């Protein structure tokens, strides 16, 4: 660990108060950014996609349950993969306990992956997860929301991820998408975020940002090279 300056309690308090002022400004900016996000225009969803679920085939409109808002986590799990993505699993470890809290604010949360329901159920059981997780293997949902890519997509240079086009190195990538449903049952897409936009949904990373070493990834071969499935450390 890099040595930090060792100071008196009084000097530390002055430094902490200076940082607090910056933290408060960041919080104000984040609140304003959240307002702008919530004010984005909507796009009507023209296809009520059909998913494979443990309750049988269910349309996108049915994934809302009794709520008017739906948050989808695009969980990387390709149809030929042995297990789900370890990075997506790192994020998904945060979800079990929040489903009821989100529901209390008119929000349903569901993970969606382009693999079989059998694969999803087997991996979910291994990870001891209970949040809703459905299969999009038999529809184009993942492709339409720019998290799954065909071989042609990946090599053409025209594939879109995180709102820019270019070659894509993987056939599956992560993201969050938000949908709303009005009183008539019409569906709308209001927001999607990808890449570093997912950071704020990971509690562990936010906690690591509090400690002196931070995420401690700067000397690794690649970001999250340290990461394992939670039963594999």
Q: Radius of gyration, rounded?
A: 20 Å
Q: Report the CATH architecture of the domain at 42-201.
A: 3-Layer(aba) Sandwich
Q: Sum up the overall morphology in one term.
A: globular
**CATH superfamily grouping of the domain at 42-201:** Glutaredoxin
Across the major sheet, the strand order is 1-10-9-4-5-6
Nearest-integer average pLDDT: 96
Q: What are the secondary-structure elements, in order, as H or E?
A: HEEEEHHEHEHHEEEEH
Helix count equals 7
- Largest beta-sheet characterization: 6 strands, mixed
Helical content (DSSP H or I, runs of 4+): 25-40%
Work out the strand percent: 15-25%
CATH class of the domain at 42-201: Alpha Beta
Helix/strand-derived category reads alpha+beta
User: Would you give the CATH topology of the domain at 42-201?
Assistant: Glutaredoxin
Terminal-residue CA separation: 22 Å
Uncertain segments: none
InterPro entries: DUF899_thioredox (IPR010296), Thioredoxin-like_sf (IPR036249)
Organism: Sneathiella marina
Pfam families: DUF899
Protein name: DUF899 domain-containing protein
